[in-house]
Specification:
The chain is of the alpha+beta class and about 220 residues long. It is built from 7 helices and 4 strands; from the N terminus they run H-H-E-H-H-H-E-H-E-H-E. It has a single domain, classed as 3-Layer(aba) Sandwich (NADH Oxidase), CATH 3.40.109. It has a 4-stranded antiparallel β-sheet, sandwiched between helices. Helix 2 packs across helix 6. The radius of gyration is 18 Å and the shape is globular.
Amino acid sequence: MNKTLTEIINSRKSIRAFLDKPVDNKVIEEMLKMASQAPSGGNLQPWKIYVINSSSMDKFINFQKKWKGKEEPPYPIYPEKLKEPYRTSRYEVGEEMYSLLGIKREDKVGRLNQMLKNFDFFGAPVGLFCFVDKQMGLPQWSDLGMFLQTFMLLAVDQDLDTCAQESWSLKQNCVKEFLKVPDEYILFCGMAIGYADKDSKINKLQTTRRPIDDWATFVK
């Protein structure tokens, strides 16, 4: 608590190993209320949020393991034939993560097992799913990003940790069936919420950003 905004922004990172420490739904509710102050074109507030916690998390994990239905991902997570410099950025963060874990490039099973940890929220006690109405377009999808970023910064202020997970879009049908979500909604992403396991190697990962000169132009 009582962190400066700069400290909060610099502290936020994607956490991929959590402690088995509960988080009260009242804390999540207050954070969601505050996050709803994020910018939203035309004040549409297009986000539709579902939270699973405690017993509902356990039920979901068990439901998911038994799921046998077909999946229809609503959107490609990354563009095909990703060009530079984006391809290198994506490649480097993957290599850094697997290197920290001691998983070699040729260890396909090890890499797959690590990827599958997405689908138990990396052990986090709370999971959040963010949906959007199929009617909405790209401007409203950008609103989702601003809402989620605001929520994640609020989490840091509460000494909580998060990991936004677009990987959940790969299991949209499973998630929608469990949550009984109306058909007109698309699953944008999930999010793991809890307390970081500070002893876990994977949480030492610190991504770097490209220099500002690569992507910003100050027009004279």
